[in-house]
């Protein structure tokens, strides 16, 4: 029973837990694969969220694998039990459909929710995820918590 349920949980459900560890990161930042991540609970629009990350010598998080997505999901779950929408660093504000990470890394992985991105009313250029576990485009003026990550060599 346990052998069967464990992999199921780890792959498909919202009860995927990784123990958060600080590692070599500053206080209130957590480590995953040599990068440091911070959950920012203050609800900001996307631009202010990015500017806050930049003030921390970081950017809104870029995500390059399912493992990294799941780590960030765990970070969100740890700080927000409601698992509300949380900004990540992806946007298409410069050109519709041209998705770019704010840290300059190429888009080499995505996990869009059903029928996303849909650019609803022509006004959704910034990306978040939350309880549904997959990515959605939203108006950049929405105010959500966010996740910052330190700069890395792009994968
Ligand atoms: Ca858009
Ligand atoms: Ca959308």
Mind explaining what this structure looks like?
- Keywords: Disulfide bond.
- This is C-type lectin domain-containing protein.
- InterPro entries: AntifreezeII, C-type_lectin-like, C-type_lectin-like/link_sf, C-type_lectin/snaclec_domain, C-type_lectin_CS, CTDL_fold.
- It comes from Sphaeramia orbicularis.
- Pfam families: Lectin_C.
- With 155 residues, the protein is of the alpha+beta class.
- The chain has a single domain, classed as Mannose-Binding Protein A, Chain A (Roll).
- It is 23% helix and 25% strand.
- It is built from three helices and eight strands; from the N terminus they run H-E-E-H-E-H-E-E-E-E-E.
- The N terminus is likely disordered.
- It binds calcium ion (2 copies).
- The site of one calcium ion has 7 residues, from strand 7.
- The site of one calcium ion has 6 residues, from loops.
Helix and strand topology:
Blueprint: H1 2-12, E1 30-32, E2 35-44, H2 46-55, E3 58-60, H3 66-79, E4 86-91, E5 100-101, E6 126-129, E7 136-138, E8 144-150
Antiparallel strand pairs: 1-2, 2-8, 3-8, 4-5, 4-6, 6-7
């Amino acid at each position: 029973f346990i052998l069967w349920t464990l992999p199921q949980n780890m792959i498909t459900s919202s009860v995927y837990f990784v123990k958060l560890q600080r590692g070599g990161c500053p206080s209130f930042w957590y480590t995953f694969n040599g990068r440091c991540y911070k959950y920012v609970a203050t609800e900001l629009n996307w631009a202010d969220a990015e500017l806050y990350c930049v003030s921390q010598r970081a950017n809104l998080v870029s995500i390059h694998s399912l493992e990294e997505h799941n780590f960030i999901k765990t970070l969100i779950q740890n700080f927000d039990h409601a698992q509300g929408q949380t900004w990540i660093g992806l946007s298409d504000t410069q050109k519709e459909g041209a998705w770019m990470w704010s840290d300059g890394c190429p888009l080499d992985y995505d996990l869009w929710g059903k029928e996303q991105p849909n650019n609803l009313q022509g006004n959704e250029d910034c990306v978040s995820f939350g309880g549904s576990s997959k990515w959605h485009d939203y108006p950049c003026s929405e105010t959500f918590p966010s996740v910052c990550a330190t700069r890395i060599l792009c994968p």
